[in-house]
Design brief:
heterodimer, A: mainly alpha, MetI-like fold, globular, B: mainly alpha
Chain lengths: 265, 288
């Protein structure tokens, strides 16, 4: 009995240590962002908002932040729209070549980003669409649509199949049924998908770095600062980006989990 | 049922409104780029300009260079090492979450593990860079107990720390899900029949969770194989991995066709690994 307890205890400690390892870089990055030292170590320096003041006064960072905001908003809308269409097609229809059809949307996340980056850069240059902000939006939509599709498909699988048929029997056309039954039913998943895709797009740097040209997004700005030398402003930008992403994820989670429980009642 | 609704004649506008957008979009911006990249590997570069052609020059050049194969095997080796480390490090934690934790704890843990995916991987890597530095937090802490300082940056250890930052959350999640779906009564039965805990893990849990575990390993390999941040910033890129090779040839060399050759070789390798993994995962267990 004692031995099992010992084993349980050490397993618990081990698990906590693994979590500590996973969260250490995030935690330290936040701590360092408020630390006055340029080369942070322990004992820590004084509390300071110096790095935040520095980024607030940097027009480059403002521009990058604005670019990121535009990119992630447009990406979210496009990816969620495409994800919704595909999820609905998958839910409602069976058709020839459906396997490859689904592979088309689900495959991109399994291909390393650096390969996607090269392929996107080459192709978009070829068709004369590289180096613009919309190039990043196009690439991010390809990368994030699968996530939107998965979230909305999950929601659709909770829908009563007879609901749609009932609406038709009551005289609604397919279009009105879509507008008044299916879209409202999927609304929490749609909001959730918007947040998720925006968050993924907001953090992506490899593909953005290749295709954005001179229109840096925030992660690309971070990449360029990191390439230079140790500059603690990265921690301040990182903390700021982290807060935005977390807000998006928590909103997504609330809509996804909260409504799911309600929906199954 | 859902199928009989589809039986309309020629062109169903409603159905196509939902089906076509993704075909057009991914055709233009996913299939297009990939096919173009494959075609590009046969193009020529003359006077720093790319001309469309069908020559095997780039393939011959890359395959005859020692540095390409050095980089290739180095990447395969370090990604395998990363996969082994992540699978072993994650296992006890996933086991604890799957069998010892309550349903609520498990759900909370998985939610926590999703967070890192949405925090900047670059910032986390930079954070490790500062933590592991010669005068960083870890060496300062070790200094108090009279150890070190150790050089951790620009070593394989540094690269692995980076890879673990990237892969551990996903591997723990996938392993936990794989083991949580194992029938608990079988584990109890093994226990009641006098099977020791470690034997139960080895002979009952691992075989039953095999599919999920292999999927976790495959994803871990794909992520490590394609990552350039950890080997570049924490490993010092003294032995460039394939992703670093792609960046170097694209960004500085203007040699896009050669970068395409490297990218295609990476994809072929990943497909081989993924297919082997899937074949192993779904293979029927021999009666041993």
């Amino acid at each position: 009995m004692n031995k099992t307890r010992l084993l349980d205890g050490s397993l618990r400690i081990y698990t906590v240590l693994i979590f500590a390892f996973i969260f250490a870089p995030i935690l330290f990055s936040v701590i360092f962002s408020f630390n006055s030292q340029r080369f942070p170590t322990i004992p820590l320096g004084e509390f300071s908002t110096e790095w935040y003041v520095k980024i607030l006064n940097d027009p480059d960072i403002w521009e990058a932040a604005l670019n990121s905001l535009i990119v992630s908003t447009c990406t979210a809308v496009l990816a969620t729209f495409l994800g919704f269409c595909t999820a609905y097609s998958d839910y409602r229809y069976r058709f020839w070549l459906k396997g490859p059809y689904l592979a088309l949307i689900l495959l991109p996340p399994t291909i390393p980003l650096i390969i996607m980056a090269l392929a996107m850069l080459a192709w978009l240059s070829k068709i004369g669409m590289s180096g613009q902000l919309y190039s990043v939006i196009i690439a991010h939509t390809v990368l994030t649509a699968p996530f939107a599709m998965a979230v909305i498909r999950l929601r659709l699988s909770h829908m009563d199949e007879n609901l749609e048929a009932a609406a038709w029997n009551l005289g609604g056309s397919e279009w009105t049924t879509m507008r008044h039954v299916i879209v409202p039913f999927c609304k929490p998943a749609i909001i959730s998908a918007l947040c998720l895709t925006a968050a993924v797009s907001f953090d992506e740097f490899a593909v953005s770095w290749f295709v954005s040209g001179l229109n840096k997004t925030l992660p690309v700005a971070i990449l360029e600062i990191v390439q230079g030398n140790i500059d603690p402003t990265v921690n301040a930008i990182g903390t700021f980006v982290f807060l935005i992403s977390m807000t998006l994820i928590i909103v997504a989670q609330i809509f996804l989990v909260g409504r799911q429980i309600k929906g199954t009642e | 049922m859902t199928t009989k609704i589809t039986g309309k004649k020629h062109f169903d506008l409603y159905a196509m409104t939902w089906r076509l957008p993704i075909i057009i979009w991914q055709g233009m911006f996913f299939v297009g780029p990939i096919i173009f990249m494959i075609a590009m590997s046969f193009f020529l570069v003359q006077n720093y300009r790319m001309t469309e052609a069908f020559e095997f020059v780039n393939w011959e050049k890359m395959f005859s260079r020692g540095y390409f194969w050095d980089s290739y095997w180095h990447t395969v080796w370090i990604a395998s090492l990363s996969t082994i480390c992540a699978m072993c490090l994650a296992f006890p934690a996933a086991y604890a979450l799957a069998f010892r934790a309550s349903e609520n704890t498990r759900r909370m843990a998985i939610f926590l593990l999703i967070i890192p995916f949405f925090s900047s991987y670059l910032v986390r890597t930079f954070s490790w860079f500062v933590i592991l530095a010669e005068s960083g937090v870890v060496n300062a802490a070790l200094g108090w107990i009279g150890l070190g300082p150790f050089t951790m940056l620009n070593t394989t250890f540094g690269t692995l720390v980076g890879y673990m930052t990237l892969t551990l959350p996903l591997v723990v999640i996938l392993q936990t899900l794989a083991m949580a779906s194992v029938d608990k009564t079988l584990v109890e039965a093994a226990h009641n029949l006098g099977c020791k805990p470690f034997e139960t893990i080895w002979r009952v849990i691992i075989p039953l969770a095999k599919t999920g575990l292999i999927i976790a390993a495959v994803f871990c390999f794909i992520l490590s194989f394609g990552d350039f941040v950890a080997p570049f910033y924490l490993g010092g890129s003294q032995d460039p991995t394939l992703p670093i090779l792609i960046i170097d040839t694209t960004k500085s060399g203007q040699q896009w066709p050669r970068a395409a050759v490297v990218a295609i070789m990476m994809m072929v390798t990943l497909f081989a690994v993924a297919f082997t993994g899937i074949a192993l995962a779904y293979r029927k267990r021999s009666s041993s």
